[in-house]
Each structure stands twice: as C-alpha cells, then as structure tokens.
C-alpha cells in the first residue's frame, strides 16, 4: 500500500501597497507593505519516503528541480531537523511565475509547513518562518499565514485584519525579475515611513510601478486598460496588476470586458491563508 498523501494549498498573495523606505548596507531594500492572501493558488501533494530522497514532479520550465524552492525548502527542513525521512512531492502549478503574487515563496512555505507535519519534526511556525527567510523575503508571511503589515525587508510582520474584497488579477504577458527592479537607478528609495492608520486613511503607492512601467510596455499598456474599469494597482515588483471589487459578480463583469487574450483570474482576499484554514480545519 502506498503512503497516505497530504495535499495542501499554496495560495497567492497581493501587496496592497509597497513603499521603499531605504537601502541597507548589504544592498537589500527596506520597505513597508501590506500582504493579503488570495483563495487561489498552487496545490502540493506530499508522500513521505523512508530513504531521505526528495523528488518533485513535474519540473517547472526553466527551473531545474535542485533550484526549485520546493526542493530547497524540503532539504533545509531535513538539515534543520536532522530527520532521515524524504518525500515525493507533486506540484499542481496554477500561479504565473515572476508575477509578484509569490507563487515560489508560497510553494516553499507550504513545503516547510506540510513536511514538518508529515515528518513530525515538531518545529514551531517561528522556526519555520526563520528557515523560510533564507529562501526568500516573502516566505515568512506564508508560513505564518495571516494578512500582515510588513517592515524591514518584509520579515517584520504584524498581523492585521483587513476587508476581504474580491480581486480581479491580470497577468501581463511578461515576467519581471525582482532583482532587476531593485537594481534600477530610477527606483526611489526614500519614501517616509507611514503607519497602518495613515495607510487606511490616505492609501499608498507601489514605488516599483514607475520603474516597471518604464521597462515593460506590456505592463504599461495593461495598466492603462485596467484603469478604465477600476483603480488598477501592481503587486510586488510586478508583473501582475489588480483591482478590488465589493463582490465576485462585479469583478467578473470587468473580467468579461477585457480582451480574451489576457490571462486573468478572480479570487477573494483572505486574512487567514487557505493553507492555515485547511490545517486548522483538520485540527493540525
Ligand atoms: C518586494 C517583494 C514584495 O513582495 O516583491 P515580489 O518578489 O513579491 O514581487 C518581495 O519582498 C521580494 O521578495 P522575494 O521575491 O522573495 O525576493 P528575494 O528572492 O528575497 O530577493 C531577490 C532580489 O531582490 C532584491 N531585494 C529583494 C527584497 C528586498 N527587500 N530588497 C532587495 O533589494 C535583492 O537583490 C535580492 O537578491
Ligand atoms: N516552486 C516555484 N514556483 C515558482 N517559481 C519558482 C519556484 N521555485 C523557484 N522558482 C523561481 O523563482 C522565480 C520567482 O518566482 P515567483 O515566486 O513565482 O515570482 P514572484 O516572486 O514575482 O512572485 C521564478 O521565476 C523561478 O525562477
């Protein structure tokens, strides 16, 4: 009999705003942002295996298994816990890559949380979030699983409760490299720090948007198009754009008016990550 499978979601996130407040000596940027999850994402299936091997199916185009954040997360947890167990992992990829909706980071977080459960390695969420930070600045928020106000390089998290609107997400036909945007001379790095209360009252910007729009005509044009129907915003360092709607029907109406050639999806914002919602239901 084959080992039981644990299947868990790896949801997308949105950055509802993104201010770059400075640059550290190591080159990393300090920022302020608000993370909210979407009830839309990848799914990972895990089977424990006793021989310590980690396998991943299928391989993602352009990402060899050893570079995949899922395999890297699994190996990191093996090292940190000293377990002798391994895993066969299957990935149902739905999220666009390099879209600023955090698919790779979310896959890594679901792997850390899922294998910690399956292997009974007993690390706390805090320890898993710290491990995750070495894989990427966005991994900790997915490990912790609550919508959050973030500072530092995105790792100083304060859980927040936000409205949970429906979002129309548009995926422009290009990928954006985060490192490339952060190294652009034109990026402004001096936004004054604000408070959550100030954001709630006055809103915020995405400081990466002018640079992304200047570098990618496809994103600039998609932004102009989406702005005809709603207040269009960009998540992270792009490429995905989004607008908020009070209900699914309103979001679907705008989606139907966009060209069929554009990749789009509609999903609800969630303050509790679908990963944690599922684990809580199963009394994890
Ligand atoms: C800015 C955000 C907002 O969510 O952008 P998105 O990637 O989601 O679009 C993220 O925090 C990004 O996190 P993540 O995508 O995990 O970035 P990492 O792999 O840690 O970093 C990629 C590269 O971007 C630069 N980088 C990243 C984060 C940061 N606060 N300052 C930086 O200067 C560094 O050059 C780094 O080598
Ligand atoms: N499991 C994974 N899913 C997606 N991308 C991955 C994964 N593992 C490694 N990567 C690499 O990370 C890059 C950024 O991934 P992703 O998280 O999708 O984008 P973003 O950080 O813009 O939200 C990809 O272009 C890819 O090279």
UniProtKB/TrEMBL annotation:
Pathways per UniProt: Isoprenoid biosynthesis; isopentenyl diphosphate biosynthesis via DXP pathway; isopentenyl diphosphate from 1-deoxy-D-xylulose 5-phosphate: step 3/6
Binding residues annotated for ATP, in chain numbering: 96-106
Keyword Zinc: no
Matches recorded under SUPFAM superfamilies: GHMP Kinase, C-terminal domain, Ribosomal protein S5 domain 2-like
Catalytic activity: 4-CDP-2-C-methyl-D-erythritol + ATP = 4-CDP-2-C-methyl-D-erythritol 2-phosphate + ADP + H(+)
Residues of the GHMP kinase C-terminal domain: 199-261
Gene3D superfamilies xref list: 3.30.230.10, GHMP kinase, C-terminal domain
EC category name: transferase
InterPro entries attached to this UniProt entry: GHMP_kinase_C_dom (IPR013750), GHMP_kinase_C_sf (IPR036554), GHMP_kinase_N_dom (IPR006204), IspE (IPR004424), Ribosomal_Su5_D2-typ_SF (IPR020568), Ribsml_uS5_D2-typ_fold_subgr (IPR014721)
Annotated EC: 2.7.1.148
GO molecular function: 4-(cytidine 5'-diphospho)-2-C-methyl-D-erythritol kinase activity; ATP binding
Active-site residues per Swiss-Prot or TrEMBL entry: 13, 138
Highest taxon of the lineage: Bacteria
Residue ranges annotated for the GHMP kinase N-terminal domain, each copy included: 68-145
Key words of the record: ATP-binding, Isoprene biosynthesis, Kinase, Nucleotide-binding, Transferase
Recorded family membership: Belongs to the GHMP kinase family. IspE subfamily.
Function: Catalyzes the phosphorylation of the position 2 hydroxy group of 4-diphosphocytidyl-2C-methyl-D-erythritol.
Matching HAMAP family: IspE
Protein name (Swiss-Prot/TrEMBL): 4-diphosphocytidyl-2-C-methyl-D-erythritol kinase
Species of origin: Pseudomonas jilinensis
